[in-house]
Amino acid sequence: MSIASTNRMTPYLFLAPAGLVLAFALFYPICYMIYASFLDWNPSQRIGEAEFVGLRNYFKLFSDDAFRESMGVTLKFAAVVVTIEMFLGVGLALLLDRNIRGMSVLRTLFILPMMIAPIVVGLMWRYMYHPTVGIFNKTLKSWGFDGIPWLSDGSWAFASVVIADVWQWTPFIFILSLAALQSLPASAIEASRIDGASGWQQILYIKLPLMLPVLIVTLLLRLIDSFKVLEVILVMTNGGPGLSTEILSLRINRTASEFRELGEAAAMSNLLLIVLLILTFTMFIYNKAQDARAARLRAVEEEV
Amino acid sequence: MPDIRLQNLRKDYGAVNVIENLNLDMADGEFTVLVGPSGCGKSTTLRMIAGLESVTGGQIMIGDRDVSKLEPKERDLAMVFQDYALYPHMNVAKNMSFALRLARMNKADIETRVKEVAATLDLTAYLDRKPAELSGGQRQRVAMGRALVRDAGTFLFDEPLSNLDAKLRGQMRAELALMSQRIKKNMIYVTHDQVEAMTLGDKIVVMKFGEIMQAGTPEELYRNPANKFVAGFIGSPTMNFLSAELIEEGGTLSAKGDGFAIPLPDARKSSLQAHKDRQIHLGIRPSSFAEGPGGLKMPVILSEYIGAQSVLISELGGERVAIEVNTVVPIRAGEEREFTVQGDEVHLFDPKTEIAL
Ligand SMILES: Nc1ncnc2c1ncn2[C@@H]1O[C@H](COP(=O)(O)OP(=O)(O)O)[C@@H](O)[C@H]1O
Ligand SMILES: [Mg+2]
After folding, report:
1. Nearest ligand, CA of residue B162?
2. Which of A74, A247, B305, B325 lies 20 to 30 Å from B345, alpha-carbon distance?
3. Terminal CA-to-CA distance of chain A, rounded, Å?
4. Do B150 and A187 touch (CB under 8 A)?
């Protein structure tokens, strides 16, 4: 082997151990799961004893109303939650992007919810939503209103988990937007003031368009995450009442542990994985497109 | 196009006072250049006029309107920034038309205006490009164009040419001078480059540490600098400064230093009487030396031959001095030459206050 080709191989040699670990830690379980999704497999059986049923699990899923509803809840949850969080997070960032005394303390406070473990967040909100001793209903009652069935009515329960998620994850969008805002070219914004832009027009025509690349990545990250949400809802409602808050990861959990259908659970996981892959891939392509654009611009610049 | 007046203008950044008490009148349609070393408060002054920086004290009057508390857009001005401050996400046409679109001018008019200005700036071919796809010089012209499409009463420039290479800077300077002749508007131009100031300004305002050292026409500043700072700042190559004593010999005053004595014209006698027999600072422009017999014998330490002119570095009274002479043949270093200095071309300064005598 020549020296040049040895040199070219060196990085891969160093990467090999990590690659092996990755292969075992990532591909093995995924392959296992894909294989399992073709089986009629009960947790009391070893995987070798399970009957191979081909695509039957998948067909069953598509005609399963509960699964379809769960998929619907997940999509609805992700869409609602991410929309609200984007508006709130970006709005807050635009509002707090100024140098007033005490602003750094305020910013830190805003980030706190994100640092709390999801299980704790779930518990906390469950107590606050408690029909009699929870702070919301106690307050409502002390003002002379009726209590709200926060977690015991389907629509309210959905709203309740949305509120909890918004509370926890708006800060994520807030800090990323704030960072993006603060790295915008100050003079371009000043130029727009001279050109006659009002505060709103500065936001609409200068700030938001310039923040867009960051906002898109943030949106995709949040979207991916909201599809995988589990703990908070598990603790708060465990999917109920009925199927009103049964998002996909809860459904998978129940299918495996309650209905004891490991094959079906695997098939669901695979479908969720595909959705997430599509989202991740979108982000990847978007980043690639940005890089390509940047490279093209650099090339143009060097040429002139 | 009203005149602009700064009255008792003051600017503090927290506890730091940057500008203490600035008073300046700018006549209608005048091209005013604020010039001074880096950090002297030129940009701060300009940005206060623009409304980008709050005013700590005093007034900014445009015409008879006190604009010091108004938003930038209420002041009827356009500005060119040092880093151009183009909108990165808009193409050249959109950049130039942004203000017009905000003002809800009709589309057809906007297009004609943009095309017109783009044509005068050689930008027609680039109207669809984003700023990142342009060279530095083109970006600079877009920044100019963006200010020009607006029919603002006042144009502000903050070192608009400082990011260009020397050749391009020279070209743009000439174009700016032409432009300022064509459109007679109030222009306030900030630069640290005295050549730019001299070539562009109807009026030059020399600043130092947030204070105005002198304001006047380029000629006034060059011929009659009010103090040593202005004398040293204006003119290239820089004025030579020498220590000397003012003495009277046989009825004429002369500046006598180590190895030289320059007789001063009688016309200056009365004003200089009070300083007789005192130390002074003598300022001689490099161009005030003339080669000729009977002058001071001076060694040529270094010779910079530029073509029609040479700048010689020599020594006088223990100080390095620069001498600018017309040359046909290069003068070589190591020679000794004789130079005379005209007494009416020297400048005298009080060594303590540095004020011109
Ligand atoms: N935002 C600011 N905060 C504190 N000091 C500032 C600020 N901007 C400028 N200064 C100070 O004010 C002085 C004048 O600055 P500037 O007007 O930018 O100078 P220049 O004449 O080079 O344009 C400098 O000493 C600078 O450090
Ligand atoms: Mg400056």
Report:
1. 2
2. B305
3. 43
4. no
User: A297 in contact with B at a CB cutoff of 8 Å?
Assistant: yes
State pTM to two decimals: 0.83
Q: Which residues contact A135 (CB under 8 A, 6 or more apart)?
A: A127, A128
CA of B316 to the centre of ligand 2 (A): 36
Ligand 1 neighbour B16 (Cβ under 6 A): yes
* pLDDT one-digit tens code per residue, B112-143: 999 999 998 999 999 999 998 898 899 999 99
Q: How confident is the model at residue B332 (pLDDT cuts 50, 70, 90)?
A: confident
Cα–Cα distance between B308 and B289 in angstroms, integer? Answer: 16
Spatial distance between the Cα atoms of B348 and B351, rounded to a whole number of angstroms: 9
B280: three-class secondary structure by DSSP: strand
Q: What ipTM score was computed for the predicted complex, to two decimals?
A: 0.85
CA distance B165 to chain A (A): 14
Q: Is the pLDDT of residue B82 over 60?
A: yes
| Dist. CA B31–CA B185, nearest whole Å | 8
Residue B34 CA: nearest ligand 1 atom is 21
Q: Where do the domains of chain A lie, and which CATH numbers do they carry?
A: 70-303 (1.10.3720.10)
Residue A194 to residue B98, Cβ atoms within 8 A = no
Cα atoms in the Cβ-side hemisphere of radius 13 Å centred on A228:
14
Euclidean distance between CA atoms A243 and A1, whole angstroms: 63
Q: What are phi and psi of B234, to 5 degrees?
A: -90, 135
Structure tokens at A265: 């659970």
> Contact at 8 Å (CB) between A195 and B149?
no
Helix (H) or strand (E) holding B340: strand B336-341
Nearest to B102 among A188, A196, A209 (CB): A196
Q: Domains along chain B?
A: 4-233 (3.40.50.300), 240-349 (2.40.50.140)
